[in-house]
Each structure stands twice: as C-alpha cells, then as structure tokens.
Amino acid sequence: MENEKEFQARLLAAFKVESEEHINSITNNLLKLERITSHEDYIPVIETVFRSIHSLKGAARAVNLKWIEALCKSIEDVFAVCKKFKSKLSSEQLDILLKGIEIITIYIQKPESDPKIFRDLIAKIDNIKIEEKAQPTQPPITIVEQIKPEVKSLDTIRVSTSKLNDLLIQTEEMIPVKVTIANTIKVLRQMLDSFNLWNPKNLQEKIMELSESTEDLHRSYSQQIEKLLSDIKQVLMLPFSSFLEGIPKMARELSRDQGKEVNIEITGGEVEIDRRILEAIKDPIIHMVRNAIDHGIEMPKERISINKLPVGKIKIRVSTPASDKIELIISDDGHGIDIKSLKEVVIKKGIITESTARDLDEQTFISYIFQSDISTSPIITDISGRGLGMAIVQERVEILGGKISVNTSLNKGTYFKIILPVTIASFRGIFTRVSEHVFVFPTVSVNRIKRVKKDELQTIENRHTILENHKTIPIVSLGEVLELSISYKKSSDSDYIQLVIVESGNHQIAFTVDEILDEEECIVKHFGSQLARVKAISGATIIGRGRVVPILNIQDLISLAKNSRALAQVKETQKEENIEPEIPKSTVLVVDDSVTSRILLKNVIESSGYKVKTAVDGLDALSILKTEKINLVVSDIEMPRMNGFSLTEKIRNEKNISETPIILVTARESKEDRERGIDSGANAYIIKRSFDQDNLLSIIKRLI
Amino acid sequence: MNLDKEEILLQRAKDLAKKKEIIEAKLLQLDIVEFYLSNEKYGIESLFIREILPLKDLTPLPFTPPFLMGIINVRGQILPVMDLKFFFDLPAKGIHDFQKVIIVSYNSMETCIIADSIIAAKSIPLTSIQPAPPTLKGIQAEYIKGVTKEFLIILDIEKILTDKKIIIHDEVT
Description:
The structure holds 2 protein chains of 2 kinds.
Chain A: H1 4-35, H2 39-62, H3 66-85, H4 91-109, H5 115-127, H6 161-172, H7 175-196, H8 200-235, E1 237-239, H9 241-244, H10 247-257, E2 262-267, E3 272-274, H11 275-296, H12 300-305, E4 312-322, E5 325-332, H13 339-348, H14 354-359, H15 362-366, H16 372-375, H17 390-399, E6 403-409, E7 413-421, E8 427-434, E9 437-442, E10 446-453, E11 458-460, E12 463-468, E13 471-477, H18 478-481, H19 489-493, E14 496-504, E15 507-513, E16 515-522, E17 531-533, E18 537-543, E19 547-552, H20 554-563, E20 587-591, H21 595-607, E21 611-615, H22 618-627, E22 632-635, H23 644-653, E23 662-666, H24 671-680, E24 684-687, H25 693-703
Parallel strand pairs in A: 2-4, 13-15, 20-21, 20-22, 22-23, 23-24
Antiparallel strand pairs in A: 1-3, 4-5, 5-7, 6-7, 8-9, 8-16, 10-14, 11-12, 12-13, 14-15, 18-19
Chain B: H1 2-26, E1 29-37, E2 40-45, E3 49-54, E4 68-74, E5 77-82, H2 85-88, E6 100-106, E7 109-115, E8 117-125, H3 138-142, E9 144-147, E10 153-155, H4 157-162, E11 168-169
Parallel strand pairs in B: 2-10, 5-7
Antiparallel strand pairs in B: 1-2, 1-8, 3-6, 4-5, 6-7, 9-10
C-alpha cells in the first residue's frame, strides 16, 4: 500500500509534467500578445491563455499548491476582464504577468521559495487596470530580475497514440518468434536424441523441418525487426519547437537587460530530430543566441545611426536538406565579426605568422574563432567576443557527427550553419588499430586515408611530413600522442606506414596507425557522470560481441599532437640495402567469390606496387591463367564451381603454369585443412582470422 | 458517522506507524555484500549495489588516472571500472578471469568497483561495526565506514561516489 507521502510525490510529479505544457503555452502566447497589432488576432490568443491558465489553476488545486492556485486566479481574472472588454494589455502589464508565470515555474522546481514573492505579485496583478482601449507601449521601467528558469529535463516525452498503437501491433506480431524458437528448441532436442540413437532418417527429416521453419522466420522477421527499430526511433524524435519555444523568452529578457531590442524569428520548428541530439545541441544554440544578443546586435541608437531598424533580428531556421540531415541556421543582422582585429589577435598569439595571414582568405580566417586559445583570450572583447565558447560549440557539434561553419560581413551580421544527423545512429567512424588497441576516428573529420612508402616521407625540421594537395602535413604517431605503452616492432617490419589524415578547424595532421580495420555506422555512447571529460576521447561505441571502442576527439588530438614531440619515428637504418631494381611489374591473380575480400586483397596487393587481376572462382581463375601471364595466385578455398584445393591441384598439373606460386587464404583453421592445402601443392596457407597485410605482402615478395 | 470513520482511520494509521517502529528496530542490521580485494575482505552495503557481473572485455582509456581501469559495456550502457586498490595501497594483482565487477550507484553517479571474488551476501548487526582504526589516514580513512571484529572493512560508498577525486574532467591545455 502506498502511504500518503508517496501518493503526494506521485501527484506532484504528474503535476510537473502537466504544468510544463500549460506554462509553455501561456508564456509563448503572452509573448505573442506583445507583437500582435490587429484586433482580430488578439482575441483568440487571449482565449488560449485564459484556458491554459484556468487548467493550470485546476491542476495546482488538485495537488494543493495554494500559492500557485492563488496566483493563477489573479492572472485568470485579468484575462477574464480582457475577454469581456476586448481590451489590450500594455507591455508593462505583460511583463508583470510573465513574471508571475516565471515565479510559478521556479516554485514548481523548488517549492521552498518565500510566499512573500507571491503575495507581492498577486497584489501587483490585482492592481492591473484594464482599459477598453490599448495603451501606448512604453519602455519598461522595472528591470526584469535575472532568475534563470531551471532547465527542464526531458524525462518524459509526449508520443501520439497512433504511433504507440502502431508499435503495440508490431510488438504483438513478434510473439510468433517466441513460439517458433520454443519449437526449434524442442526439435533440436529430438534431433539430439535421434543422433544418440543414430536414426539418420529421422534426423534428416528434423533438419529439413528446422531449416524450413528458420527460413520462414528469417523471411518474415528480418524486415519486421527493421521496421520496429525505425518506428521506435520515430518515437524518440522530437520537434525542434519543443526546445526552441523557450528561446524568445530568454532573448527577450537578455536584450531588455542590455537595453537592446531583438526580434527572434523561428522557422522550421516542426522538423523532428532525435531527442538525444536535441538535448546535446541545446546549450550550443542558447550560447549562440546569447552571443548574438551580447555582441552581435548593436544598441538601438547605434543601429539607427547606420540606417538599420532599431529592432535587431535573429533568425533561427531549421530545415532538412536531405532525409538524414538537418540544417540549422542561426543568423543575426548585427555588426558581424571584425576580421581585422581577429587577424591581429591570431598573429599576436603567434598562431600564424603575418606573411601566412596575408595569404589566407577571409573565410579560412573566420574559422579561427573555433579555436579554444582564441576564445579564452581577453582581447576577445575587442573583436566582439564572438569566439567565446565557440570551441565548445564546435566540439559538441562534431561529437554528434555534425559540422559547423560561419559566415560574416561587417555591419551586416553573422551567419552560422550547423549540419546535424537526424538520428544518433548515423554517425560513421573509421576503425583503426594501434597495437592491440582499437580507436574510432569520426569519418567527418577524416580527409583521407593513405598508405605511403616510408622513403616518400619528407623531413622538415626533424619532423616527418607528407605533401598532400600542395600542403605540408606533419605526421604523428597516434600511439605516442595517446601515450599508449606499446612496442613498435611491427611498424618497422614494413616499408609502408598507414596514415589517417584528419582536419579540424584549420589544422591537418596525419596520424600513423598500424591498421585500418573498417568504416562503419556506429552508435555513440556517452560516458556517465564519473567520466565527465576524458582527454582525447569523446565517447565510445560498441561493436560486435559487445566490445567497447573509444571514439577519438579530433580537436583534442590535434592540440595534443601540436604540443607533443610524439612525431613518428621511422627508422632510417633499413634504408641502406633497399635498392629496388627497376623490374617490370609482376601480376597477381586474386581468386575469391566474395566481393569484399576480393577488393580488400586487391587494394592491399596493388598498394605495394603489383598489378592485380581478379577471378570469382577456380574455373574463372584457370581460364585467366591459361591466357594471361600471372606471376602469383592468391586464392580463397571455399568457392562455387571449383574450390581452392582443386584449383591448386589443377595448376600444378597444367604444363605451362605449374610453377606459379600459390597462396591460399582461408577461414579454415584445422590442421587437416592446412595439411590438405600443402598436399595440394600450395606455397603458403594464410588463415583469414589472423590476416595481416604486412605478412601477406612479405610472403608475396618472397615467392615472386 | 463520518466522524467515526475518521477516528477509525486515524487509529489505524497510528497502529501502522507503531508497527513500523518495531520493523525499524529490526533494521538495525546492515545488508552487505562481502568480497575479496588483494586478500583483504571488504563489504559494500547492498543498498548501493545495482548488480554484480563477471569482468570481461575491459577497454582501457588513455590519459586516465591509475585507479580507473577502463570502461565496460553493461547491456549497452558504458560504465567506468575503478580499482580501489589504488586508494588503499594494496599490492597490485593482475586481472584474472575470476574477477568480478560490482556496479554501485548513488544519486546520479554510477560506477563499477572491481573485486577479486565475491564471498557472500549477508546481514550484520550495526553494533558489530567499529569506527576505522586511527592508524588509517587520508583517503583510506575517508572511504571507510567501519571495521568489524572479523576484519571486514565496510566501504563508505556514499562518500566514495560523492568524492570529486573520482571524477575525471580533463581538458587539453
């Protein structure tokens, strides 16, 4: 049984959720009232507010929040009169009412505030005199007190019943899976019995039955599960408006405090986005709007003097340029970023030299505002302060798998464009390996992946660099930047190094890794409260069999690389004997029925200077071998028509090609298979599971 | 009639409240889970334990202090794993397969504590717990709620989980 306290707590929780809706509606409509000029538009808004305040009052009474009830009653009375006389409220009167709503919001979050505030405010509200004619708007005399409303958490979401019904139906349709699996278990047990008693006929029948039912299950449910997944994702989507609704109120307070006038224009609030992304992008948006008001929009007097309207304008536009992308534009018509001062700061800070600064175009230059050492600079106030915290904004956006860019022109304004993925899942990452560690580079930040010969590297001021698109990019070892304790035995074995060239802000750095594993779509998992911020790591993702892989924070990585002396040390000692004679390129034939393996092998072998031909199975390979000059064969074992063993035997028995070296690459690991491979006449037998490209290349080198 | 009803209800409420007191007296016991960490016996109040799992697939993170062993995946949730040995100056012992992680939570903080092995879950009377010996200093004493006669060290999970020292907030400078 629940005791009274628990019941009260539950009621209160329900009230919080309900009140939030009413309060949002009331606040927005109150703000709307201020802007409406025509009489016809005014009345319906008054109606809406009246209804919302009435409901709020009722809800407050139900949970015995007397002060809220009383305050609501006063506000309700004001609107009742408004309705009756069809009269307008002045800016000041609206201020008082807004203040009332604000106090209610705070009280709901923290019910211990002083009743005196309520009493005073109720007195003020009751004093509001409503005239039949609208009063001229006057600038407010009282300065609105800065009480920050508690940031509302999105613990609950509103989902349309139709969406939920749809989900229920789909989930119900999953019941047969349970039944079928139960049956599968039963049949498997029977099979085991038949096997023990050795009843092959019965066994065969059961296998047939099982295979059919499993196929059925797969056919009908693979799509079903996909659909369920995407529908659940839909449920987690929220319209942007659920958060943007709060922006005009915040902007209003902020601009009034500074004696500025700002009009916020929001379009595309109906666009839906994954609530986790919305949650993460909130602070950056608030920050940017604040910046625009603080530093972008000029004082009304100043604006008039340069022929602008006294009221500044901030536009927030949300749109979906592609089905998986959301574009968020935040622009203002303020005085823009002063590039000249920015240039001075950047040069003064020694980030670039004066001569390089001259060569940079303005657009490249502006992106310096995203650099953290610029933003923390005290000089920032001289250049409009725009940079403040922009580094954090960029970091947030990049963690989400998005991009941010900025455009500005002096006295016309600033324009930020943020591209975001619609759902968290559409984050792509490049999986790399350093020793036994695996790390993910966000694909958005990676410019190129490159395999280069060690002797192609250039050394500038004792640092290894690489020339890419006429730009010199420093090379840094990922393992050393991350201070991993690993042995470097491996990298010196090969003549090649694997580079991941990343870019953030204006910097490009090439990181060496041992291996590129894959590029995959992955889900970003953020760490809990204990790991508030880990250097160089922005989160983690989970790969097959539940292994956790850290995701690299590119900005951190670049800063670390710049500071450290962890430059890739490519040993010079081996170079002496590496005089490669100019011989005609050898041709390698890759035989594999899987496209992926074929492409993988082809790339690996081609990258070390061989010509590569491909065949889809043994028969195909044999016909190529008979017509073309092939120096070596790399073949899979399991293939349709003719497998790798037969191919090897066939080659060994064919006159002109019998001497061709053959490397079998296979998933079969058993000793028997290995022996069979050697018996059939293969020169090498490589197991796919432990596939290592350097190993393969050195074997090829040895055999040709 | 109504008054009578109210009186009955009131009496009932009083009775219920009394019984609770008796139950509370019984509750002067502490439910704990006992585990080994470097041959020392530790106890954590069950109240703070979400679950206990075998340790597998620990992913270490760069630039983290030694007490943070790495992160694990608990059904899709990423959780940090702490090795309390580093707070208690215990001899290090490598990771073994038999090691367990104890997921503990307090308020919004949730983390894992590594254990060599779990001994048992049991109730001990509060009276058997004595304050930490004065020889313990600093962090060692801070994190301990008390010690029993059997040298079972009861950890103060509330203290540990609210200590800023365990939070990693590292910016690149």
